[in-house]
Amino acid sequence: MNQNLCILILMFLLLTEASFALDFYYQHCSVPVSCGRLDISYPFYIQGKQESFCGYPGFQLSCHGDGEDAYPLLQLSGNNYTIHNIDYQNKSLLVSNSLLSGYLSSTACNDNISSLHNLTFPNDQYKLASNQADFFLLYNCNSSVVESFPKYKVGCFDQPTNKTRSNTSVLALPRDEYPKFGTVEADKCGGEVVVAYAGRGVRMGGGINTRGFEKRV
Asked: Residues of the signal sequence (predicted)?
């Protein structure tokens, strides 16, 4: 389940008047620019590779890496989201929170996820696709709390004998389970953030399964 927690589906929204216009500027931006294995085209544009008029305001991306290993990043709520797929026809993105993904794949227990933020969408340009779940991610939890709720542990976690890393323990609770957790236990954690994910329709491991893509109608 761990890597599932990273994946979510976003719908990108454009007003009718913001559709692709065949004026001078957009004629010079009609050829998609690649970032890794993805072709980036309107309404998105890649900062540093394309002029801003090649995209729509608020849809700027950055491209990290080289060649086929490169990947586009979208910044939302102060966090970077790796884009795994773009469905232009259905106006949807398959993304993962880069910071959370790095933590869940780490075995060093030294990644700090306290800079995670609740996901918010500026200017109504994005929204979550329907039928997705969310959960409460509690971090910097007391080791006794983590040991009391072992099924909610995610990512790397401390060995009982390693007291120097007691603040790296993280719990992920589904929304319907959070009230059962109780405020007393929650107070024993350093912070919490609400994270959305695509649920069972999407999984990671040996590649991205895009069965969870929502069809926009």
From this structure: 1-21
